[in-house]
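S.,

Sequence below, as promised.
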Amino acid sequence: MQRYPMTVLGAEALRVELDRLKNVDRPRITNAIAEARAHGDLKENAEYHAAREQQSFAEGRIKEIEAKLSNVQIIDISKMPNNGKVIFGTTVDIENVDSGEVKTYQIVGEDEADIKQSKISSGSPIARGLMGKEEGDTVVITTPAGQVEYEISKVRYI
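The prediction came back faster than expected:
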C-alpha cells in the first residue's frame, strides 16, 4: 500500500475539494444530465455529452482523492524539533552561490506542489538535492540549465 506524505494544509485542501465535488459539483452535473436528457435525442446532444464528460472527470477525481486520503501520512512539521535539517514540510531559503539570488521553497507532497506559491514536490530534483542537508551546507543541483550550486541559508519548521 502506497502512503502519500502530505502537510496538514495539503490534506485539508484535499478534504475541501472532495466536499465541493460531492456536495456542489456532483448535484449540478446530475441536474445538467437530466436537463440534457429532456431535450431528446442523446446521440447528437452536445450538452448531454459535455455533462457526461464532466461527470466522468468528477467521479474519477472523487475516487482519486478518497484513495489518497485513506492512505495519507500527514506530517505536521510545526510539531517537530527544528534541528536545522531539511526534511519533508520544511521551508528552505537557498542562495545561488554564483548569482547571490535567494529562493525560498517549501517541500511538500506531490498533490500540493505549486511553484507559484514556492511549494515544490518532495520528488523534484531540487527537493531531493536538499533533503537531509542542513543550514550552511552547500549542494549542487542539476537543473535544465545545468548544474547550480546553492548554499542553504535557513531551514524553517513552520
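The chain has a mean pLDDT of 93.

Coffee later?
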